Amino acid sequence: MIGKNRFYLFLVLLIGPLSAFSQLKYIGLAPFKTTDIKNYAEAEAITEKVKELFTERERFTVLDRSKYSQTAIYKEIEVQKNIEFIEGFVIEQGKQNGAQAIVGGNLTSLTYGKSSNLYECSMTFSITINDVENGNVIASRTFNTPSFCLVCAGGTKTETLSLVLKVLQKKIRSFIIETFPFTVDIEDVYESKGGGEIIIIAGEKEGVNEKDKFKVYEIIESGNRTRKAEILEFDIDRVEGDFSVGRIKGKKFDLLLEKFKNPEAKLECVTLSN
Q1: Do 171 and 47 share a structural domain?
Q2: pTM score, two decimals?
């Protein structure tokens, strides 16, 4: 067990100043568990992939035990042996930093095969996102190696695992976006040839890319009730610094333009998974 003084010193160093990142959501990331301790390396690889996908767009600051595990207290397989203690540490760290959720998961099955000097990997793991305050499950999903995947075979087990996770990252990314959609402001809507364009206030800093999908709703209030009426979906055509532009054709653009020009209409633009 880590000494109390050393633990508190590490906690102070890890948390650090938060004011510069107050606009971001904090997510606690616990190490993924495995039903077979021999698969600790694969569980760690999944943890790192999930961390990579949460941090690729500057919407989240991930609070994990990465610095903790580098203190020579827990190395490699020791992470899995002491995972309950580390998971508790991450949860407590998340609470102190104002994290909204704790992300973790389980590697439930893993097998390797070899054919024509290439390794193949079949695995199943789940990702679970819990409310940090009450522990309730916000979202959970299971991911499997595709049954037919030409690009999943590698010369080593490590290479094969990396290829499988690369194939699955689109589904993991979609799961994250579905669980944590974010709302952006509409800067402008204007006509152009064949329809029109919409400019949103979100760009490179937020990690918006070409072909990202967004949806526009009209917020309709009736008494103490609120209804979200869908107007349209659109793809990002180009990113211009702090702004992004989507092209829209046909009658749906006409409806959007009408609503945008109406000062009484309340519009909401949110991300969608690809």
Answers
A1: yes
A2: 0.72
